[in-house]
Amino acid sequence: MTLFSTHSGYRTLALAVALALPGLAAAQQGIPTAQALSSFAAKAKAQGLNAADVADVLVTNSYFDASIGVTHTYFQQRVNGIAIFNAFGAVHTDQSGKVLFTNQDFVVGAAAKAGSPTPALTAEQAVVATSVALGLPRPVDLRPVIEARMADGIVFNKAGISESDIPVRLMYTRVGDKLVLVWNVSIAQLDQQHHWNARVDAQTGRLVEQNDYVVSEQTTFNQFRQHAENKRHKALAFDQPAAAASVLSPTSTTAANSVTAVAFPLESPNQGARTVVPLPAVGNTYSPYGWQVAQAPAGTFPDTYSFLSTGKYLTRGNNVAAYDDNSSTASGASTANYNSSTTSPDGGPTLNFDFPFTQSTGPRNNLNASTANLFYVNNMMHDVMLAHGFDEVSGNFQFKNATGLGAGADPVRAESQDGSGRNNANFGTPVDGSAPTMQMYLWDNQTNTLTITGTGTGAAGVAGTYPFSTVSFGPTLAKKPLAGKLVLVNDGVSPDGGDHGCKTYTNAAAVSGNIAFIQRGACPQLQLTPKMSNAFATKVKIAQAAGATGVIVFDSLATTNQVSFGGTDTVGIRIPSIFISGADGFKLRAAILSGATLNGSAVTVTGADWDGSFDNGIVSHEYGHGISNRLTGTKFNSSSCLIGNVGTTAAPIYTQQMGEGWSDFFALWMTTKPGDIGSAKRYVGTYVEGQNSTTGTGIRTKPYTTDFSANGNNLTYGAISSTSQYGTGYQESHALGEIWTSVLWDLNWQFIYKYGYNADFYAATGGNNKMLKLVLDACKLQVCNPGFLDGRDAILRADTLTNRAANADIIWNVFARRGMGYSALPGDRVNGTARNTGVKDGFDVPPKAKVLVLSNQNSIVAGSALEAYPNPAQDLLTVRTQLSSSAPVQVAVLDLLGKTVVQSVAVPAAKMQQTGVELNTSRLATGIYVVRVVTTEGTYTTKVTIQH
């Protein structure tokens, strides 16, 4: 489970030094580096930089991308001979050396903004200061293992505080309008939860900012649990075919050279039985050494990585080493030789990785099957992504690179049933040449049911069962049951009747001896951290002081089904508490306010844990973090060019980090089946939530679908900063990712409608394959730490390079539909990173782009030019358009004879672009009608079905 760096991991330092000499770099790479540097400098000056700003740049990486015929050259700005953190640029040239385009985020007037280049702290003192600032133990016997110039980087030993050696480098970083001299220190925590890249002030030792190489799902895989209304009155059972609860595949003695797994495009055992998948033959295009080390010719791998080192035939190969890392085992793969001999399943000399699986027997009895599935999914992700451009030269994950390009020595270390956490997963991506680590956890299999009974007005209408989420503080329900009368609290100060429970209650006597019923939020004085990690617990403490026997908190957004509750026990909680959704909470609140007396009883029933390694969507999601991190801003800036937050843990600055979005897109893409349609609702994480894959709601706030209705997915770019509608809910990295995935998913389906669907995931043809390649190419082309609009522009550039801009109009229209159109505003950019503030929707396309009515195949609600949904409609029909109009838009519904049957008032064009207009269709007979929209740009129509 160690995040480690071998000496090959330090090649980035040597490479950076080599590439700083253009002549040497050109000789090594065979590329026009000097020409690229010259062109980059000229364009940067035209963009406002002065000569000094581009006089000293470090070429961090340069390589020829054969998949699109482009050489990518990446730069880092230096001042006083010292690199500036996250001040990156790039130039992209064709095979003749012609510059195609450049981008940069350099500091203007850097020399005048830079402090003294002489540090007061030594590199050793910087390591100590960093460990103290991060709350880690002080280093023991700290000593350098690689000496170099301070500006190039010094490497220290692990010093008892890090899983890998500690690189330290003198840099500048942006703080406001100044460049502060810092020591950049990387420490991989011993608990494997974080691999910190922190910057401490080189004069004072103060922590300036930090980022994490480990992209963790934190609590958010749990945090966005939702449960459909139709599941409300029954337990959260594992709602799937009966066969899935039995042994899905008998142990075979004849399936040589194969692995039994949940084969793509299936997402999990919910969707079908495991099957026997042949191991690809040696010499195949995407894994020339095969998937398992014993397949490769003798001498391909050193003994320390071959089956000879263990005498066993393990789930280990050139692309991935998969092994068990549960709490009862030592850290699975040795930092020296990836030795997983005691914790990986053995396929024997016939390489038969077929193991039984029965969910009800518990995860430890299914360990071999779990690890084999993890092995399969990682290999598939490797091969499919390599086929579309994530190859050796661009920094993919392999022990040995057949082409000799890229660093190698970095297969994925995939850990099944990892014992360091639960209900979670993560992926750590160090630089090319150092192995990434994927940690897959077990998930709670519990049914949380709140039963409500009562008397009085309105009680009968709310009686029933409701799902809830448990909390991370206070006693468990097993230790202290939660049962009693619900009393809506009143603090006398908070909005909406005082039920937010922000201070001592005015009705404390009524609460005493009962369950305090509290609305979430609205207590700024309790928000002790930006994530309110202690505000929830403080609310419970106030209820406890009032004599409450328990607490039920409900979400403050009545339109959501979210059931989440964070926080830590920092205030001494002695009573149980749970969290329910806003939709349920406001329903119960209304009954109480109408005079009902409600009683509640919360019960948790626990079953055999779900295993994240069987959820192909989540495994693909985690692997996706490695892809986007390695491709954005070059493989030698892994995780530094997709920083989720800047600043410190205590004072984070939230950014437009799209990493979660790419990862969800990759998961959806890999699990798309022939016959799927874009309007269907797709979910993430239904398996680990014990839900049916088609009706469960998974771990995201909305489904992924091209259906733009409120019951589908109507997220737009502006949700990032639309606090009036969403609070701050869409500023967290996973919620941001939902918006980015939504637009990529829409675009994926438009490509499928144009080019067709190809079930061969390795092919170049088919809209799905063309879209995946476009996404990977765009990652290589976009600026370091991009915002959403930077990502949009990179996709447009990738289409220009690969397809001669054949899809530009489609791309513009799809992005405009989600608010990322021509007039959208990107928000603030601080310290080289796009922030969430200042974002504004734009629903238009550029003047020269065509406004399209997007394809509406397979009953999919589509249409950037004109949308009418839901379709079929019943009593209400929403009409929305991206068309510009200098006069108010006229909207009408006509029957098939051309008679107007519904007429709207004139609607401003801006309103039509953002929310559209609702039409009352309750009086229309069942049948087919025509929606007509008249603008100054022309008249547009679309058909809609009314069905009562």
Automatic annotation (TrEMBL):
UniProt keyword Heme present: no
Pfam families: FTP, PA, Peptidase_M36, Por_Secre_tail
GO molecular function: metalloendopeptidase activity; zinc ion binding
Residue ranges of domain FTP in the record: 59-105
Biased composition annotated in UniProt, kind: Low complexity: 326-344
Protein's name according to its UniProt entry: T9SS type A sorting domain-containing protein
UniProt-listed GO biological process terms: proteolysis
Protein family according to the UniProt entry: Belongs to the peptidase M36 family.
Domain PA: 484-587
Ranges in coiled-coil conformation: none
